[in-house]
Every structure is written in structure tokens, then in C-alpha cells.
Design a protein that fits this description.
heterodimer, A: Ubiquitin-like (UB roll), five-stranded mixed sheet, B: alpha+beta, Cytochrome p450, 11% strand, binds protoporphyrin IX containing FE, binds FE2/S2 (inorganic) cluster
Chain lengths: 108, 418
């Protein structure tokens, strides 16, 4: 099973096995990883599952398409960066084994 | 349907012919009798058309997932003030004030981005100490062993103090903000001082005059972290003052957004605890539940009853054909009690597994800007209440307002024993 490393804002790391087909958001929620709220439950409608994708993985996860719902929702999230994604929109594939994401200061 | 008080709502809800059910009747919310009507609609006709109701013809969206669908398709379901805006009431064109809540992307997005930093996590941290200080002061001044109105002494006082902080509004004039907020949302048929749209505009012009003065003062000095400074210096909004109706619209949005909703959550939360003694006891035994209780209170209260959209194209929801121009109303009060999306929705449970999975803040591009600020205020309130008063008693049924938009409590008599 692919492993995803979630790093909290305070630096705490969580290495979690996430089944292929689940989203990075679900991996965090199912395992009680703090720092991802996911109020809308993965509908790309709340922007409280915001993460920064580690530079080494950006090629594989990609960035939201301009004009997409994800880009629009992300533009309202606090403290976004060029490597920001909504983790409910990243589906885990064998390719993403080892993925590292960081959590922002807060979800809002 | 326009049932007198003695008619049992449970019976009336099932006896009324389906096409005659009109959930827009503000009495249902004033008398707290709306539940069975929505229960029936969710079961029998979840996307329901009411022709020629009290507020015209409209679709009622009653299920959580259908509301989510409408929220996430702004390209079809428009919030645009010119098409009808965000409430079921169709205001005459000349009274329509525009603000970003009643705009569609891309203009909406540009304006929203200007104000959202004020409630970013770092700013919230800065605000929390002042919120706590003010909350403590208000609570320490409450009478003991004496019946008083919680709405007046706590809910209004705290939210108004918060508003004056957000706008950096002169604190001694803060009750004006409450007054303007109430005027902005009053139903002209409710029998209050706002008995016509002209009267409303007259009062709101006073607000506009005061805020125009503040604007010029803030524009002349370097940007600060209050909302007026942010608007006056923001790329997308710095000429807003030249469009008074739009400036007024945005002000009203921020005043109302941060006022009634939080106020009514402060009142409704205490009512819910008093009416659910076992949950109240859970809280006393474990105040660490406050962070999960707060979103549950916000779900339970559903401070905004509905939001409205207007279809910009023909579309379909749950098999029903929606036509271009149709009025589509998302009833949050109903979606928040939908058993297909929320576990045991009719129970108030302060330690739910996923308490933020509710519709009270909306979803999608218009999702409430102030949602974490509202939670912060309520969290601080309950932390400080529990430190001081293990028990507060409800002395009478809360009095509710005549409105199908703001789910409001106007008076709530309580007593703090000891
Ligand atoms: C419990 C308290 C609150 C509730 C229940 C609430 C509810 C809502 C709802 C339902 C919406 C519209 C969502 C939609 O159309 O999909 C909204 C939008 C908004 N709220 Fe709140 N609100 C609360 C507190 C606040 C506070 C404290 C502020 C002040 C900062 C605020 C400012 C706004 C603004 C500016 C919008 C417009 C967002 C947009 O259109 O993009 N709200 N709120
Ligand atoms: S969970 Fe709501 S946007 Fe990702």
C-alpha cells in the first residue's frame, strides 16, 4: 500500500498507509491525522483540506487547472503558496508511494 | 397551511396537499413548527415546486446532497443580485444592494479575496485575546439569582463588541451597528420600524454616511487590519466608495454576516443545552468537548434558514426539470436534519464524530468567510461560561422572530443560580 507522509504545522510527522483509490484527505481523516478538517467531506467545496505538496512530488500530483473548481476554492484559503492543493482532489496511486505533504498554519 | 396556532403542525404538514405546502411562511420559523413540513418534503418530494406561494413561485431543495450540488454549481445557480440575489424575497430592482455574496465569479472572487485575510489563522490568533477579554468582562457583569435576557446582555453585547473590533468602529457607538443590522434584515411585514423598503433605505443611508467618513479617514492613512482599511486599500475595492450602493451592500453583508448569525448561535446554543440536560451534563463533566460542541450548536441552530439562487440555464436536480429563471431555495434548516447525510440528525449531540459536516455555513465559493471566527467567538464564550457558571436555567420559551431567512431569537429569559 502506498505510504503518505503528513507533516503538521508544528513539524510532527505521520507516516500513513493509504489504499490506492482513496484521496490524500481521506487518508488523513481515517487515521485521525490532525491539521486537515475536510468540512465538506471531499466535495471540493470548503477548502479546509489544504496542503502544500513537497517539491519532489509536484510533478506527479500536478497543480489545479486554472479556472477549475479546485483553483477557485483554493484562492479563498488562507496562506496559500504556489505548491498548494486541496488534498481531497489528490487520489492516491501506486505512483504516489512516498508522497510528502505539509499542513498550513490553519484551515479556514 | 396558514394554520392558526392551535393546529397541530404534525397533522397539518401531512394533511395539506403536497403542492400547497409553503415552507416560505415566516410564521413557521417564528413558532418553531417547520420540522414536520420539511420531514414530509424530504420523504415525498425532496425537490419541491411551490407555485404562487407567499414569496412567489420557487423550488425548495431539502436534501443535504442536493443543496451541496446547487452550492457547487454557481455557473448554473446564480447569486447575482440582478437576477434576484440570495434571499427568497424578490426586492424591487431599485432596492437591490449588491455585494460579493450576491455576485457570481469572477467578480465575486476578486472582492472576496480582499476581505478574507482578516479572518486568516494568524489574524484570528491576534483577535482571540481581545475576544476573551471582552467576553470575561461581559460575563463577570451578569446578575445572579435574577431573571435576565440572555439575548440582550450576552449575545447582542458580545457580537456587537466583535463587530466594532472588526471595523474598528467607535466602541461607544456600537449599538448602532446592531440597529443597522436588524434594519437590514427585517421583514417589512413583521410589524417593526422597517415597514417599507423606503424606510429601510433611509436608515441604511445613516450607516452609509458614518462609514463613508470612516472610509476617507482610513484611506488617508496606511492600511490597517480592520475591514474598512482593507477595502479602502484593496486592489479590487479601492474605488468602492464611489459606488455608494455597492459600498452599502458590502457593509451590510459584513455587518449582518458577523452579527445576527453569531448572536443567534449564542442564544440558540444555551437553549439547546437547557433543553438537552444529558448533553449539558456531558459538557460539565468534560469541558474539553467545547470545540466539537460549537459546530454542533451551529448545525442545530442553523442561523441562516435558507439561501436562494436563480437558474441561469435549464437544469435538472434529482430528476426534476429546473428552467432558466426559476428561483431555487436551499433550505439549510432541512438539509441539516437529513438522515441520509447526518447520523441521528434530530438529536443534539455535543461529541459527534464529524461535527463540521453541516450546511449552516454554506459550501462552495460563497462558503462563509467568517466561519472560523464565528467558531472562535463561540468557543471562547463557552470556555469562559463553564469556568464561571456550571448551570444556567432557562426561565421561559425563547421568543423567535418573524423571518424565513434569519433564524433569530429576540428574547430569552434565563437565571444563573447561586
Ligand atoms: C454562526 C455564524 C455564521 C453563520 C451561520 C454564517 C452563515 C453564512 C452563510 C450561510 C453564508 C452564505 C453561504 C452560501 O451562499 O453558500 C455566509 C456567507 C458569508 N459570511 Fe457568514 N455566517 C456566520 C458568521 C459570519 C461572520 C462572523 C462573518 C464576519 C466576518 C461572516 C461573513 C460572511 C461573508 C462576508 C459571507 C459572504 C461570502 C461569499 O459570498 O463569498 N459570517 N455566511
Ligand atoms: S474536503 Fe472540502 S474541499 Fe477538500
Amino acid at each position: 500500500m502506498p505510504t503518505v507522509t503528513y507533516i503538521e504545522y508544528n513539524g510532527t510527522e505521520h507516516r500513513i498507509e493509504v489504499p490506492v483509490g482513496k484521496t490524500v484527505m481521506q487518508g488523513a481523516i481515517d487515521n485521525n491525522v490532525p491539521g486537515i478538517d475536510a468540512d465538506c467531506g471531499g466535495e471540493c467545496a470548503c477548502a479546509t483540506c489544504h496542503v502544500y505538496v513537497d517539491a519532489a512530488w509536484l510533478d506527479k500530483t500536478g497543480l489545479p487547472a486554472p479556472g477549475s473548481q479546485e483553483a477557485s476554492m483554493l484562492s479563498f484559503a488562507a496562506v496559500t503558496q504556489p505548491d498548494s492543493r486541496l488534498s481531497c482532489q489528490i487520489t492516491v496511486t501506486p505512483d504516489l508511494d512516498g508522497l510528502v505533504v505539509r499542513m498550513p498554519e490553519g484551515q479556514h | 397551511m396558514n394554520a392558526p396556532v392551535h393546529v397541530d403542525p404534525q397533522t397539518d404538514a401531512y394533511d395539506t396537499p403536497l403542492d400547497q405546502i409553503d415552507v416560505s411562511n415566516p410564521r413557521l420559523y417564528q413558532q418553531d413548527t417547520y420540522f414536520p413540513y420539511f420531514e414530509r418534503l424530504r420523504r415525498e418530494d425532496p425537490v419541491h415546486y411551490r407555485k404562487d406561494g407567499m414569496y412567489g413561485s420557487f423550488w425548495s431543495i431539502t436534501k443535504f446532497k442536493d443543496i451541496m450540488h446547487v452550492e457547487t454549481h454557481p455557473e448554473i445557480y446564480s447569486s447575482d443580485a440582478k437576477l434576484g440575489g440570495i434571499t427568497i424575497t424578490d426586492r424591487p430592482m431599485q432596492y437591490r444592494r449588491s455585494s460579493f455574496i450576491s455576485m457570481d465569479p469572477p467578480r465575486h472572487d476578486e472582492q472576496r479575496k480582499v476581505v478574507s485575510p482578516i479572518v486568516a489563522p494568524a489574524n484570528l490568533n491576534n483577535m482571540s485575546s481581545i475576544i476573551r477579554e471582552r467576553t470575561c468582562k461581559v460575563l463577570d457583569g451578569l446578575p445572579r439569582n435574577e431573571t435576565f435576557d440572555w439575548v440582550e446582555h450576552v449575545s447582542i453585547e458580545l457580537t456587537t463588541l466583535m463587530l466594532s473590533t472588526l471595523f474598528d468602529f467607535p466602541i461607544e457607538d456600537r449599538r448602532k451597528l446592531t440597529f443597522w443590522s436588524d434594519c437590514a434584515t427585517a421583514d417589512v411585514n413583521a410589524g417593526g420600524i422597517v415597514n417599507s423598503e423606503d424606510k429601510r433605505l433611509e436608515i441604511l443611508r445613516e450607516a452609509l454616511a458614518a462609514f463613508t467618513g470612516l472610509w476617507h479617514e482610513r484611506a488617508a492613512r496606511p492600511g490597517g487590519y480592520d475591514l474598512i482599511s482593507m477595502l479602502a486599500h484593496g486592489e479590487a475595492t479601492r474605488n468602492l466608495v464611489n459606488d455608494p450602493m455597492e459600498y452599502l451592500g458590502n457593509l451590510t453583508l459584513l455587518i449582518v454576516g458577523g452579527n445576527d448569525t453569531t448572536r443567534n448561535s449564542m442564544s440558540g446554543g444555551l437553549a439547546a443545552l437547557c433543553q438537552h440536560p444529558a448533553e449539558y451534563q456531558k459538557l460539565r463533566d468534560n469541558p474539553a468537548l467545547i470545540p466539537s460542541m460549537v459546530p454542533e450548536i451551529i448545525r442545530w441552530v442553523s442561523p441562516i434558514i435558507h439561501m436562494r439562487r436563480t437558474a441561469k440555464a435549464d437544469a435538472e436536480i434529482a430528476g426534476k426539470r429546473i428552467r432558466e429563471g426559476d428561483k431555487v431555495v436551499m433550505w439549510y434548516v432541512s438539509g441539516n436534519r437529513d438522515e441520509d447525510s447526518i447520523d441521528r440528525p434530530n438529536e443534539f449531540i455535543i461529541d459527534r464524530a464529524r461535527p463540521r459536516h453541516h450546511l449552516s455555513f454554506g459550501f462552495g465559493v460563497h462558503r462563509c468567510v467568517g466561519n472560523r471566527l464565528a467558531e472562535l467567538q463561540l468557543t471562547i464564550l463557552w470556555e469562559e461560561v463553564m469556568k464561571r457558571f456550571p448551570r444556567i436555567e432557562l426561565m421561559d420559551e425563547p421568543k423567535r422572530i418573524y423571518s424565513n431567512f434569519i433564524h433569530g431569537i429576540s428574547e430569552m429569559k434565563v437565571r444563573i443560580p447561586g
